[in-house]
Design a protein that fits this description.
With 491 residues, this protein is of the alpha+beta class. It has 16 helices and five strands.
Length: 491
């Protein structure tokens, strides 16, 4: 710091000698070059180095005093750093202001310059455009801006307008209580069937529906009408898989699982075509739901029909068994014959009792009395007849079944026939109920939005497409730039 406190006149003389000879020491020139930039930085950072400003003012005052400046000039010089622009009269031999400033800056010592540099901090280098900056700019133009411009030109100049038709529906199931239930005939519940709606949602995205509708209304011709739009128009020569993929992009299906509502938006290049496709889709969906309901009804009717057929076969076999029994035994109804036989035996027993009474009345006569002989003969005949009639109820000498066994077999056949008749009646009643149920639609498609017809084209959504492209292209470009700079920093 001793060099900064030396006589200002000596500093001025040394500086003047250097300027007059036009030569300078290597060390002096080496210090003078950075002194300009450092002094400028110190002037910008005036709040950080007040001591250096005071020394510079002192050096300027000493310089002006040796050159013959008046006190008024000194005051003007001191007032100049404070913002004033006044000038005083100077002598003809006074040096220009730039020379005085250059001389005053040269009077600052090297140590002072180091202190100013340390207080001001590092000085930034001058920025200029490099090759990597140009590369970033060209990459942004090629990766982001150029695809956006090409896409915008295609969307607004080439892409054809599309019209939307909306249709909404849901699957409803009607549950009616049986007539015998409590309050069953007073109300019927109608609710949505989630399982059927799930099936319908998958059916709307299936190849079967697309093929059927293409066969009915010719989807290929509707979606390939406009020419000159290879991106949004269907290729009519494509396969069924291509048609299904195009169907997924043109027919948007939304399904709310909580409410069971399905809403379908159909796009086409003509409003009438969009409405036609939506109407055909609604009809096919209703036909599919009706087919499911018919299949469920057919299952119930088929089971009932099978039960009726089994009961009918059982009843037929029982009746055939009764007929075979009657033909074999030549008896229409063994129980009736058995009752007749029992009545006959009872009547003979009554007559036998009368004959015995008559014999008892003739007990006092001779034994050769014709009346007694006739009474005894009558009693013997009646006894023989009773024995003969009773013998018919049991087995005879040939080993054939008696009347009691035949009656037992016949009663068993009657019981089988009776059970078969009751089973047949029950099965027939069930079949009639199932057949009546099949006449009523238990599942049906309820449309809450009928197919609409568009008046204004709102598709394709050009701004949304361009916005998404800008977002993703910008992300791709930013990620690529970050990767490139990270690889560059690793070198």
């Amino acid at each position: 710091m001793s060099s900064s406190l030396q006589n200002p006149a000596d500093i001025e003389a040394e500086t003047a000698t250097t300027d007059e000879t036009g030569t300078a020491r290597t060390s002096g020139r080496g210090r003078r070059a950075p002194a300009k930039g450092l002094a400028a930085a110190a002037s910008r950072k005036s709040g950080r180095a007040p001591a250096q400003r005071r020394r510079r003012k002192l050096a300027e005052g000493a310089d002006e005093g040796q050159d013959g400046f008046s006190p008024t000039a000194d005051e003007d010089t001191a007032a100049a750093p404070l913002g004033g622009r006044r000038r005083s009269a100077r002598s003809l031999d006074a040096k220009p202001r730039s020379s005085r400033r250059k001389l005053s800056l040269s009077n600052i010592s090297h140590e002072t310059m180091l202190e100013v540099a340390a207080a001001a901090g590092p000085v930034a280098r001058e920025a200029f455009v490099r090759a990597r900056h140009r590369l970033l700019l060209w990459s942004f133009l090629l990766v982001v801006l150029l695809p956006l411009l090409v896409s915008a030109a295609y969307l607004y100049g080439v892409a054809k307008d599309q019209y939307a038709s909306t249709v909404g529906f849901s699957v409803r199931r009607e549950d009616a209580s049986a007539p015998g239930d409590l309050l069953g005939g007073l109300s019927a519940l109608t609710k949505s069937s989630s399982s059927d709606t799930d099936i319908l949602y998958e059916y709307l995205r299936s190849q079967k529906l697309v093929a059927d509708m293409d066969e009915r209304i010719d989807l290929r011709s509707m979606w390939s009408k406009p020419w000159g739009d290879p991106v949004f128009v269907l290729d009519p020569t494509g396969s069924i898989e291509d048609l299904v993929d195009y169907w997924q992009s043109m027919v948007r299906t939304s399904y709310d699982s909580t409410t069971g509502l399905i809403e379908v938006r159909v796009l086409a290049f003509d409003p009438a075509d969009a409405t036609t496709i939506a109407t055909a889709l609604l009809e096919d969906s209703a036909a599919m739901i009706n087919a499911l309901s018919a299949a469920a009804r057919e299952d119930a009717v088929r089971y009932s029909r099978e039960e009726v057929m089994a009961a009918e076969d059982r009843l037929r076999n029982a009746r055939e068994a009764v007929t075979a029994f009657r033909v074999k035994n030549q008896i229409v109804d063994p129980t009736t014959d058995f009752q007749t036989q029992a009545g006959l035996v009872g009547s003979l027993e009554n007559k036998l009792a009368e004959a015995q009474i008559e014999i008892d009345l003739l007990a006092g006569v001779t034994e050769n009395d014709p009346r007694l002989v006739q009474a005894k003969r009558r009693a013997e005949v009646i006894v023989a007849r009773i024995a003969a009639e009773r013998a018919k109820v049991g087995a005879d000498e040939t080993g054939s079944k008696d009347l009691a066994a035949l009656a037992a077999d016949y009663e068993r056949l009657l019981v089988d026939r009776e059970f078969a008749e009751k089973a047949y009646v029950t099965a027939l009643s069930t079949y009639d109920g199932a057949k009546a149920e099949s006449q009523r639609t238990s599942r049906y498609l309820a449309a809450h939005i009928l197919p609409t017809t568009a008046e204004v084209s709102r598709f394709p959504e050009r701004l949304a497409i361009l916005g998404l492209m800008a977002l993703f292209l910008g992300l791709i470009w930013s990620i690529a730039v970050l990767i490139g700079y990270s690889l560059k920093d690793r070198r």
